[in-house]
Design a protein that fits this description.
166 residues, alpha+beta, four-stranded antiparallel β-sheet, 5 helices, globular
């Protein structure tokens, strides 16, 4: 049974600080994270009552030796070949989770594309542009931020490309 999402005014994470500093419109959604849930993204979508097509997960991959952020709908999965192509690379693989956490400053399941410790090349799946707003991690498990895909693209200097598969 889905958990009721709670709305919160200020998340206090580097992601929400970055959004506030940039002056963009956003909404923070908080929910009680269940550590036994098999998918962080699906748990967020269920808890908020939002379609999994509008909730995006943040993944960190290694593209030819460069850590790269991929933001894809939780309803699908990352196409590593498409990600490599989007950043003019040859080969992509999922990054070591410990390295991803250390580089971004966030824990797995709470990695946000915003406010990362080190700015990484970012690719947002093109399906995001079909929605007025999308949800991404606000920087910790159980906390999501809703914003326009245009603002997310601008704030992360993201490339928009078809990098997800159903």
């Amino acid at each position: 049974m889905p958990k009721k999402a709670k709305k919160q005014q200020q998340g206090g994470t580097p992601a929400t600080v970055a959004l506030t500093t940039a002056g963009v419109s956003f909404t923070v959604h908080a929910y009680d994270h269940d550590p036994s849930h098999p998918s962080y993204g699906e748990e967020a979508a269920e808890a908020m009552g939002v379609s999994p097509d509008r909730v995006f997960k943040t993944l960190v991959a290694d593209v030819d030796g460069t850590l790269t952020v991929a933001v894809v709908p939780v309803a699908g999965s990352l196409d590593l070949k498409a990600l490599a192509t989007a950043v003019s690379g040859k080969r992509a693989a999922m990054a070591d989770p410990t390295l991803a956490e250390r580089t971004t400053g966030y824990v797995r399941g709470g990695i946000s594309p915003l406010g990362q410790r080190k700015k990484l090349p970012t690719v947002l799946d093109a399906s995001a542009s079909a929605h007025a707003t999308i949800c991404v991690s606000a920087g910790r498990r159980g906390l999501e931020v809703e914003l326009s895909p245009t603002d997310l693209t601008h704030l992360t200097d993201a490339t928009l490309a078809p990098i997800a598969r159903a």
